[in-house]
Amino acid sequence: MFISETQVEVRYAETDAMQVVYHGQYVVWFEIGRTNLIKELGFHYADMEKSGYVSPVIDIQLSYKQPFRYGETATVRTWIQDYTGIRTTYGYEIKNAKGEVCVTGSSVHTVVDKETFRPVKFKKEFPEWHEVYEKEKQSK
Amino acid sequence: MFISETQVEVRYAETDAMQVVYHGQYVVWFEIGRTNLIKELGFHYADMEKSGYVSPVIDIQLSYKQPFRYGETATVRTWIQDYTGIRTTYGYEIKNAKGEVCVTGSSVHTVVDKETFRPVKFKKEFPEWHEVYEKEKQSK
Amino acid sequence: MFISETQVEVRYAETDAMQVVYHGQYVVWFEIGRTNLIKELGFHYADMEKSGYVSPVIDIQLSYKQPFRYGETATVRTWIQDYTGIRTTYGYEIKNAKGEVCVTGSSVHTVVDKETFRPVKFKKEFPEWHEVYEKEKQSK
Amino acid sequence: MFISETQVEVRYAETDAMQVVYHGQYVVWFEIGRTNLIKELGFHYADMEKSGYVSPVIDIQLSYKQPFRYGETATVRTWIQDYTGIRTTYGYEIKNAKGEVCVTGSSVHTVVDKETFRPVKFKKEFPEWHEVYEKEKQSK
Q1: Which residue of D has its CA nearest to C106?
Q2: What does the alpha-carbon distance between residue C73 and residue C7 come to, in Å, rounded to a whole number?
Q3: Strands B4-9, B101-109: pairing kind
């Protein structure tokens, strides 16, 4: 199973009055990890949008173990946790510089038509992409 | 069981290139709902911070059924879903103007010391607040 | 000259590690003020977008005099500062509950085609809207 | 005069319903450029905060020439535009991959006590930092 690793430096704008990264911000970091995983597997989310589709999140879950502070650099680890041919579940783990797991989570995505938001079969519309995800799933 | 209802108008800044509200943004709307629920139950989160404590999220989960677009107004419904004396679970449901449920979710919170981030017993530090949450839990 | 007034409660997500509202966040508050001014003058920005146009910001300026903290409510005052038939300049002033001016600024906008981003003549495409802005300008 | 260059990839969360980067987001990109300029000149903003000071923005100005879209990478160029011993003005220019200038701007900063928000003399509290900024100013 391939695990993508992306470095993210805490932006001041991402902190809140608790003087740590705002908990909602990790949704964005997950997205950065996901974008990079897709790129490293050979595809581009921007290309999917150009061809008339978008891939909305239908479910997301985050668990917080330790906060990040301004000045820190995070490593976002992302992988294919599950894949059904229609739905893809991405798994995430965010570590600090000491290697401690600070945030974990997962998100479930479908692919829909850009205009109508009607679901399409990922397998059928993106056969090569499907193949790679299928392989990732089996290598778990 | 008391359910708080808060109106939220979609801000342009909250939309993304899918031309709907960015999925991470609902974490903020949950927070607005939670703040109002607490206020309507007779307390103020800002007061908790002034007395030296913060209440970080340790777990959050969101499910997306329908998107919101710019120009729409949402109703965020929030309630006490569970309470253990240490951890509080808030439940959320976001409806559009037609009354359709668009987003649901829950978040789990503890109370910790502002400086050390060490957990404190909510029950002991905030006895009146505890009483109200206990009552809410039992009225479910 | 008409001045729109909008109440904005500080959201926790809007604060940063300085424990005040993040300076970039006031751009969003300006937008809320602007949206309401337009509404109170009888128009809807969302309608403009539906008819195929968008109104990007081409210049924005903000001056910070005093910070806002979580728990505070702001009043965003917005007016038409200048209008050329092509460009509209909105003026802003954000006051705290004590009536102190905390943030001031202005933003300049054009109207462009949604797809091509080519400028259109506001006066020609939105004659009624033009009339109102012209009147606002003259009443200064 | 030293000009810092920082690459920034557009995050999906940074786009809005106009399908371009939200105009308020560039305030954050300016901040990323500024943080890197400071680092490359030999200092760390995080260290300033640890020593009891913060450096709020007192004035910011942005001009928009061309939008950025999801999938693009920006180069944020940042330099010391002016320095008085008390106030520092940073200059910014954001270019796209074709080398076109898309956003320009400047921001003015002071240094204040973290708790009281009372201004301190940068020159006195941070003499080495002062020296470098003075030199940058003269090399213009």
Answers
A1: D61
A2: 7
A3: unpaired
Catalytic residues of C: 16
The pLDDT tens digits for B85-119 are 999 999 999 999 999 999 999 999 999 999 888 99
- Residue B105: domain span: 4-138
How confident is the model at residue C117, as a pLDDT? 86
Instruction: Say yes or no for a CB contact (<8 Å) between D17 and B17.
Output: yes
Residue B138 CA to residue D4 CA, distance in Å, equals 59
pTM > 0.90: yes or no: yes
Contact C111, C57 (CB under 8 A): no
Task: Give the strands of the sheet with A73-83, arranged side by side.
Answer: A4-9, A73-83, A88-95, A101-109, A57-64, B57-64, B101-109, B88-95, B73-83, B4-9
| Residue-wise pLDDT tens digits, D2-22 | 999 999 999 999 999 999 999
How open is the CA angle A31-A47-D65, to the nearest 5 degrees? 80
List A5's β-bridge partners, or say none: A77
- Other CB atoms within 10 Å distance of the CB of residue C2: 13
Q: Chains touching chain A at 3 or more Cβ pairs under 8 angstroms?
A: B, C, D
Contact C87, C57 (CB under 8 A): no
Total domains in chain A come to 1
How near does any CA of chain B get to the CA of A28, in Å? 7
Per-residue model confidence (pLDDT) at position A22? 98
pLDDT tens-digit series, residues D87-133: 999 999 999 999 999 999 999 999 999 988 899 988 889 999 999 99
Structure tokens, C135: 């009147």
Pick from D96, D49, D37, D101: nearest CA to D72? D96
ipTM score assigned to the predicted complex: 0.95
CATH classification of the domain holding D54? 3.10.129.10
Tokens linked to D102: 């898309």
